[in-house]
Amino acid sequence: MRWLSKGIVSTVLSDLGSGRRPLTHEALDELLEGKVVEHIRSVLVATGALPKRDEQMVRLERHVKDLVASHATAEGRKILHRYATWHFLRGLRRRSRGKDITHYQLKVARQHLWAAVYLLNCLADQNLALETCRQTDLARGMTSGDARLCQEAGHFVRWALSQKIARDLTFPAERWNGPSQPMDEEARWAAARRLLHEDTLKSKDRLADLLLLLYAQWPAANSRLTVDHIKETDGAVRIRLGADPVDVPSPVAELALQ
Predict the structure, then answer these.
(1) 3-state SS class at 124
(2) Which of 24, 44, 213, 239 has its CA 20 to 30 A from that of 191?
């Protein structure tokens, strides 16, 4: 009841109830973005008052709009719009096949778009445009001390070459042999079961993979773990992944002790 009586919550619900604000996603989009509005929207969707939509994609579209507008030159904004809207977003929708995009896909997309903005900004600082940029100019920008997201910038450069926007440039692609889409729930549990019982693999590798699959621990975090992070007290096994140790159930516990 206290939450419902707060300023923005009370105002939004009152406006929706009275009809002063239409009960649509677009009307909620006009409000200041934040967790309160997100929660109101999620409740309205869960109760069927609003239709479900891909919120990650909506956030990405909003992010694209802000990024494009942030670039200093009109020509740069035109190139960014073509790359982000007609190439990147369209390709992401095609690959998702009507399903909601994941948070990881949203993060990767933002990295690619930021890399394109960063590269164009580097060129603008040198009074250069992508059309007139040469390989030495590109190398200077990508090897400077504050160069970021080089791999993602390569994706942008290769797209610009395919569109005849850039000409005298090369940026070889690194071959990716990993998964092409997020692992579904069934495949994740199948991999976990195999790791629990496949004793031909090293125990430390099996544990590291299980921490990734079951506890969402990044490989970089797993690589810093030592035996001191694992404690057994009164028959309970705990692993310190963050500030506080977490209980590890059997049979992962036996594997951790090994």
Answers:
(1) helix
(2) 239
- pTM metric for this prediction: 0.57
Continuous H helices in the chain = 7-18, 25-29, 35-46, 55-70, 74-81, 90-96, 103-125, 135-142, 150-162, 185-197, 203-215, 219-222, 252-257
Q: Which residues contact 181 (CB under 8 A, 6 or more apart)?
A: 95
Residue (of 252, 190, 180) closest to 215 by Cα position: 252
Give the C-alpha separation, 209 to 219, whole Å: 8
- 21-24, long-range: CB within 8 Å, 24+ apart, which pairs? 23/49, 23/50, 24/50
**CB 37, CB 12: distance < 8 Å:** yes
Query: DSSP string covering 164-232, please?
Result: TS--S---PPPPP-S-SSPPPHHHHHHHHHHHHH-TTS-HHHHHHHHHHHHH---HHHHTT--GGGEEE
Here the tokens at position 111 are 């990295």
- 238 pLDDT band, cuts 50/70/90, is very high
- Cα gap 97→246, rounded to integer Å: 37
Ramachandran category for residue 112: left, alpha or beta (phi over 0 → left; psi -120 to 50 → alpha): alpha
Rounded to 5°, angle at Cα 215 from 201 and 219 = 60
List C-alpha distances in Å: 62 to 18, 65, 96, 105, 111.
28, 5, 18, 15, 15
pLDDT digit string, tens, across residues 78-116: 999 999 888 888 888 888 887 888 888 888 888 888 888
- Is 115 within 8 Å of 152 (Cβ atoms)? yes
User: 3-class DSSP state for residue 129?
Assistant: coil
Instruction: Write out the two tokens for 8.
Output: 């923005």
